[in-house]
């Protein structure tokens, strides 16, 4: 029986650029770094109020990552989407879609990580 989700892995072209994005835009923290037996650079990012981590991986001598539109995304809850968006813009990041009110009353928006992976921001209905 599965006990819990531990991490989600995303392969990237430039690990330092991607880590910088998650640290600056979303204020995630690096939990640990390592190099795999195959020589892959690996960075685990801690996620707030959760045990799950995001694993960022850059494989040496591998084909370039080409993220297809709407392939996958990570979703994070934010307290106030307007305030969060203003903070993103001060840091030089812009939304790629939204904000959009959903049928449930939540408001969602998206920002793109360096390789094109989408990050969904959700302000839940109150």
Short description:
With 126 residues, the protein is an alpha/beta fold. The chain has one domain (7-123): 2,3-Dihydroxybiphenyl 1,2-Dioxygenase, domain 1, CATH 3.10.180.
Molecular structure report:
- The chain is an alpha/beta fold and 126 residues long.
- The chain has one domain: 2,3-Dihydroxybiphenyl 1,2-Dioxygenase, domain 1 (Roll).
- It has helices at residues 15-25, 81-90, and strands at 7-11, 29-35, 41-46, 53-58, 73-77, 97-101, 107-112, 118-123.
- The strands form 2 sheets. A 4-stranded mixed sheet has the order 1-4-3-2, covered by helices on one side. It has a 4-stranded mixed sheet with strand order 5-8-7-6, with no helix packed on it.
- A hairpin with a 5-residue loop joins strand 7 and strand 8.
- The protein starts with 6 loop residues before the first strand and ends with a strand.
- CATH architecture annotation: Roll
**Elements, N to C (H/E):** EHEEEEHEEE
Q: Roughly how many Å apart are the termini?
A: 35 Å
CATH topology: 2,3-Dihydroxybiphenyl 1,2-Dioxygenase, domain 1
At the fourth level of CATH, the homologous superfamily is 2,3-Dihydroxybiphenyl 1,2-Dioxygenase, domain 1
Helices, by number, come to 2
The overall pLDDT average reads 94
